[in-house]
Amino acid sequence: YSPDQLSQYSISLQGCAQSAQSLPLFLALDHGEEYFNRFYQGMTLFPAAIAQAATGDPQYAYRVARSAGNELVYSGINMVLAPVTDVLARFNSKISSLSTFGGDPKTVGEFVSMAANGYRDARLVTVMRDFPGGPGREQSNRSNAPVDFTERDSLNAINLPPYRDGIASGVPVVMLSKTAFPALSGDTQPANLSGDVIRLLRQDLQFDGIILSDVTE
Q1: CA-to-CA distance for 79 and 28, rounded, in angstroms?
Q2: pTM strictly above 0.70
């Protein structure tokens, strides 16, 4: 898509929804920076999250998110599947080495919160992802579900603080990971199917917003 094409498509979809019901559709996209660009032309390529964090200035994340968010709103998108809230545990990970704000929970929390504020000021619904983290996963392909064997103490100390910061800043939606966390659930059931993971989010982190699920392959 180009922004103009998606805008026309979004208007058409919302028109169909309006004719059938009173509530508008959520139109979501995982977009906002260099490695999450879903357009072939017409959109700004902003630096990856890891590069934003390298500036040491969380306001940079705000400016990127607000600018990218404004472009998405022009295209008819009203929900952004960002920011990625993982703390990078493996710096050689092809899955997350560029999409996260780095390996320090405090820094990640600060940048996530500011990015969320930027998207919100662009009039987008923000979605933190992928709870309760993911960069420690061992495998990820269609025949073997990804598994993260991080211990519970490490999850509490490293993975969860950025989510707490984002929740405190008012993020309304959290997406659950398709990765399994045996330390939380006691088995290899994906987090997005785990009652234990949902209870952690609802009870321990006191999140009362909307929960989304990542796709389970």
Answers
A1: 4
A2: yes
